[in-house]
What we know:
The structure holds two protein chains of two kinds. By secondary structure, chain A is an all-alpha fold.
Amino acid sequence: MTRYRELLRPVLLLQTGILTLSTLEATVVAAAGIGSPVPVLLTAAAATFVAAASRTGRLNQALVWTERLVLTTFVVDTAISLFTAGSLLEPTVWVARFIVPVFVLRQASADRRSHALPAETTHRMTVPA
Amino acid sequence: MTQIDRRGIEEYVISPMYSISDEHGLGLLFALIGLGIVWYAMRARPVSTRASISLVAATGAGHLGLALGHDPGFRTGAFVGFAVWALYAARRWANDGTPMRGTVAGLVLSVIAYTGALLSGEAPDQVGLIMKVLEIAALGVVLGEQPTRRTARLRQSATVISMTVTLGFAGWIGAFVGGGHTHELGETPGPGLALPRLEPTRPTADDRSAADRLFRETALNIGRFEDISVAAAEGYNVNNLGRMGGHADNPAYKKDGRILDPTRPETLVYRPGPEGPVLLGAMYQTDESGEPGPMVGGPLTVWHGHDHVCFGLLPPGLGSLGSPMGTCPLGTVMVALTNEMIHVWTIDGAPSRFGDLPEEWLEANIGS
Lengths: 129, 368
């Protein structure tokens, strides 16, 4: 999975754009007095974590939990959609809330595994005898 | 317990923004096949090159599929032209190892052209949106080829983020301008409104008589709720007036098996006026999502549902509608399809008895 690392930044930038748009939409609804500010704050925080990760390349715990939250809502929404509408959600939902978070979480998992390897093992793997 | 013959979402007409039109299905299929084939064929290449070529080839194949789904004309010619250019660009890239001149400009122009079409009032659909997401993703990869240069990184970030946000906003504009706002059968609805997929017909004398009876019985039974303290005493939740468009639900009347009972309407609709909330009418609701409401007055009493609604959990309430980019704000869940409902407007002078009340009339007669 680490070989796909160079796609991480474009993917995180796309997600930053998607979450920024979602923050603006929630802000409009909250400003109209219909919605609550909580989704605005949560989505803005998520957009900030993703933007920060796209800049630094570090996939920290805040980002990992953000991606897990996005993925969890996808699973819940898919279940609701199957129950209420009898259909799966549309392609943009799959891209924004399934493919992107799964890709980022797999990168984070690959990062954790590579950091967890003992230095001696890494040395043996990379330096020929 | 009676088995309800429920409608699936395909039995509703919803905004094209949340659906795949018949003539665009081939475009999505071609794009997916193109992406898969080229991704596999380019497996020996560096990942960023592999991804860029695959995405450009996918959008080229997708536009070819779009052209096949449309009748000959200017638009079809534009689809073919872009498809040929994109497939040629992908091939040259695969052969030369570097993108040919104008690849970035071609992708940018394609996204701008679609955004312009949306801003001019064309309703977006899922295939159009996903095709542009592929192109923006391709741009993100291509512009990141020189990741150590600060200006290159800045250009990459600005391009991807601004194009995604602009495309989303244009999608909203296109969806609202291109969709209708009344609840008439046969109309393309705006985002969030789901109308039963039924042929429009002319009302008969029996339809008019039944619709008139429903209106009169509703007006007779809900008149006392002009005083919201009476509504509150009978279990209507008037505390949230001002939110959800002034709808006061009565939880005891929901899922009670009595769908169109003028003595027990599920919801009362108010609007804030200069001297307090003004009763506009009642809203009847079915017990289950997809359960067809009884159209007692035929085409005069069309029921509707709402689709792709983001409901907030903290606190419970409307969050927004599903975004063109497929998201709901975090902390909300997307309800793909709600129960069916019908409004009966009993306020004096209302220009329509059922369906939708024009905002202009409300502002002129009650206040904003």
